[in-house]
Amino acid sequence: MRIISGEFKGRRITAPKKLPVRPTTDMAKESLFNILNNSFYFDEISVLDLFSGTGNISYEFASRGTQHILAVDANFGCIKFINETAESFKMPIKTIKSDVFKFLENTKQQHTIIFADPPYNFDIEAFSKIPELVFTNSLLETNGLLIIEHSKHTDLSNLENYSNSKSYGGNMFSFFELQ
């Protein structure tokens, strides 16, 4: 994976093969950030990266100037890799090793953007629990955005606070916001 833009543009990051991850493709990531670039000043936002895996999305936000990034993943190897990478690049990424659903049930901290990249094999009930917890617990700041990455074979358009989706190859991003 590589960082698309910002201070660390072009830098390649190689994650250990043993991590249980499926990083967002560079093409999909670039398209997502083109959308976000039109709505947010990256140096003024707070980001929560759920199911953060390799930290791919967190690194992109950090490279673009975001100073408040929290990455949450249940896998110790993923958290360790993100910590090591963030430290080597001197990126302001904090990590929490936790089950994402338990984290969302217990946190009160609000964020401008919440990005979730759960396993593509989640059933619709598991996917629906993400926006349910985010909105029930008021975890988005005013004008904030929840983005869930998923397979194009999963339809999240019936979930509450759904706004729209964008498809890039086999990847899909569904956007949720307070209506």
TrEMBL record:
Transmembrane segments annotated in the record for this chain: none
UniProt GO MF annotations: methyltransferase activity; nucleic acid binding
Gene3D superfamilies for the chain: Vaccinia Virus protein VP39
PANTHER family: METHYLTRANSFERASE
Name of the protein described by the UniProt record: 16S rRNA (Guanine(966)-N(2))-methyltransferase RsmD
Organism of provenance: Ichthyenterobacterium magnum
CDD domains registered for this protein in UniProt: AdoMet_MTases (cd02440)
Record key words, sorted: Methyltransferase, Transferase
GO BP terms, alphabetized: rRNA methylation
Domain of life: Bacteria
Matches recorded under Pfam families: Cons_hypoth95
